[in-house]
């Protein structure tokens, strides 16, 4: 009699593989925001800071400095697209501080009573025309974005970088020939870093320290700036530390950490 | 019908509830009557059309490439068969985003093969063809595994008889092996198509997202989530309704076979 299933390949295992694939696919949607745990092995209190991806390196550096001033406290950084962070708060995620990549998203969070303090701007950034190292598409101006022969990456208009880019381009009558709309500035930068795109509009904070992605200098005023407002989350159970952290970001050490990671001063 | 033992019935009911309740929950958040108006939105309609076209082509590619591979694996010796099976399963255990990145590294503008393609003017990233490549990459293993299992169950004496009557190996494959294995292959086709239709990670990573060109329904759903959960759920329901319609249509023809 023949075996109903080939040797070493029972029905269980076959279905097992299928399960792995599906878990892989769904894990993807859940890992849109990553959690970096502090080094402190102390079992003391922790502070969860939700921050727009483009500011996450700077805010992570500031958090490490904050931890050194507050032994026993560990700061967890949850980075993601601004809209996604607000959505997570709406669905009940616990966090203590929210930092978005524009004021519009923070105002939306305020409207939904997701934050309990008046937002304060802790950093700024500029939208920049960015190209891969070597500028293979010979991009020199914003009008090059309408060249259909170039691969152009923009942010979705729902994201702060996309909204800012859309406003700037339509104000200048430029009809961009986008080849892909990325979920946030960091993903658009990724297209340049892999050299798959010739040009992108991203936040200066996302240019990065390695020279893989470079800014094309334009005359001042062509592209807008953005503010990063911070506020204490309404459901925070650690409002004292949360307020202290926001104040720390505004202070000299916080500002130093933020500005040495590509962000502009408050 | 004999009574089902409780030890089997309880987990079976839990499994069924686990699979169906999340889908039922979707309907509690969005009115079903809104679905037709959702369908008329250009964003949803374009994405649905693109999803139907790309997932169908991907499934055809899976059949054309996967059925022969499944047959080759099924008819090899144990050692080689196990090795080939591991190679086929690799894309399944790879997170889809990692799959998308590996496709970029191979077929991207600066990729190992992509560079050669670019020199003859072919570029896959950010094109509909790229979407099809990504979907085929993740869907193919489902078809190969299912078809291979089906081929292994074909009584080889049938093939021997056909061969002894003078049929060539290719003719035996077409006229005996494939028809006998058909129910298993069809199950694989349905799995592959479903996987291609729902594909997200590899597609957005390799092909990007542009309405009308590469923004399939799952990608449109992800973008709709930026606006509101309700909008995203509506797009999800469109995907669900379409899948159910197709499965019901197929049931008449093939689904009952397997």
List the defining traits of the structure above.
heterodimer; A: 266 residues; alpha/beta; 8 helices; 10 strands; 35% helix; B: 258 residues; mainly alpha; 12 helices; globular
Rg of chain B over CA atoms, rounded to whole Å, is: 21 Å
**Helical amount among residues of chain A, as a percent range?**
25-40%
Strand content of chain B: under 5%
**Greatest chain-chain contact:** A-B, 38 and 47 residues
Output the radius of gyration of chain A.
21 Å
- Principal-axis shape of chain B equals globular
What value does the average pLDDT of chain B take? Answer: 89
Major sheet of chain A, described briefly? 10 strands, mixed
General description of the model:
- The complex is a heterodimer of chains A (266) and B (258).
- Chain A is of the alpha/beta class and 266 residues long.
- Chain A is 35% helix and 21% strand.
- In chain A, helix 2 (56-69) links the parallel strand 2 and strand 3.
- In chain A, helix 2 (56-69) runs antiparallel to helix 8 and helix 7 crosses helix 8 (252-259).
- Chain A is elongated, with a radius of gyration of 21 Å.
- Residues 1-43 of chain A have low confidence and may be disordered.
- Chain B contains 12 helices and no strands.
- Chain B has helices at 6-29, 35-39, 42-74, 78-93, 96-107, 114-119, 128-152, 156-164, 169-198, 201-207, 217-227, 229-253.
- The longest helix of chain B has 33 residues, at 42-74.
- The model of chain B has no long low-confidence stretch (mean pLDDT 89).
- The A-B interface holds A 2, 4-9, 14, 17-18, 20-21, 24-25, 27-29, 81, 83-84, 87, 90-91, 151, 153, 156, 158-159, 178-183, 191, 194-196 and B 74, 78, 81-82, 85, 89, 92-97, 104, 108-110, 125-126, 138, 141-142, 145-146, 148-149, 152-153, 155, 191, 195, 198-201, 207-211, 214-215, 222-223, 225-227, 229.
